[in-house]
Amino acid sequence: MSAWVAGAVVVGSVITSNASKSAANTQAAAAAAAGDVSLEVAEKQIAAQKETLTTQLAAEKESLDKQLAAQQTALDRTLAAQKLAADTGNTVAKDMLNQQLAAQQSALTQTLGLQREMFNKQIENLSSYKEAGETGQTRLLELLGLGGNKNAPGFGSATTAFKVEGFDPNTLLNEFNGKQMEQDPGYAFRLAEGQKAIERSTAARGGLQSGAALKAAAEYGQSMGSQEYGNAYNRFMANKASQSQEFSNAFNRFTTERGNQLGALQSLQGVGQAAAAGQAAAAGGLASSGSQAIQNAGAGASNAYGNYGGAAGNIAAQQGAGNAAAYSGFGSSMSNAYAGSGAARQSAYGNFGSNLTNIYGNQGAGQINAITGAANARAAGQIGSANAFNSAIGMGVNLYGMNQQNALLNKYLSTPRVSLS
Fold this sequence. Notes:
The protein is mainly alpha-helical. The protein has two domains: 2-92 and 319-414; 116-275, no CATH class. It is built from four helices and no strands. The longest helix has 204 residues, at 211-414. The radius of gyration is 84 Å and the shape is rod-shaped.
């Protein structure tokens, strides 16, 4: 009976040992499977993290592209608006310039037209005087023998010397002599009348050719010459004075008539000269006022161009400043966008790395735990099997001991005892 019990204990121990090994192998397989599951989960998590990173990077790139496009659109619109404003300003400035130049030209044209009209009126008013002066000058030149028309009436007559027809003014310088006495009309008349009286008296006496008659005639002539010399001289001088006076009067009349004739022409010439001077003054005034009007128009045009240049310069400067500010803002916005995108990418890569670290850490820990669990299970199985055998041996020993003890006890019990009572 004890042998059977011991065998049963040994068989039970073997069964227990095998069960422990089977359980250990099952736990090790479960731990290995758990490690494989942990690796698969880690790979899925890594794939998910990569997908998340890719999605984040794509979203960040899309956001950056949209920001850059929006910034470029804003820059283009700003530059277009500034160009439109500059073009509009330049158009307005040029239109104002054209209007100012047109106004200057209109004012100049009206001023010059008015001055020309006044000049023409002055020329018209003075033209008749100028023509009269030219006519007088032409006639004066003809009379002086200087004109071109030699067939003009009285051509050169103003240069003709004064003379009295039939009278030689040089005779006024002759001295009184016997010849002048003989030519004296009074003396000749009285001498002839006396001779006639002597001849009549002699003829009456019949001695016309006698010596007495000739003597009487000679004496009479001498007596008449003596008597009439003073009278003839006085008459000669009076006649010379009269001739001189008449010659002088004639010369004065000649001079007066010529002076009146030439004076009138010279007066007309003076009128024409004054008219020509007036026309010249009018022309000078027209030139001066016209020059001043042109200078004023030029100064006005210069000021207009100066204002236009200043306005265009200010517009260009404002456009340049606006463009610079727009480009500066565009650069700053692009820098901020790239900085924000870089920070977001860096954060995404940081999170991705951190998550990968956690996943690899967890997966490594799971693998370690699975390996450790499998080893522990196998070790526990080995220990369990050994413990089973040890327990079986112990139990066998114990059962054998107990069996021996029971045999001894039964033997003791079966032996008769002496009663003590």
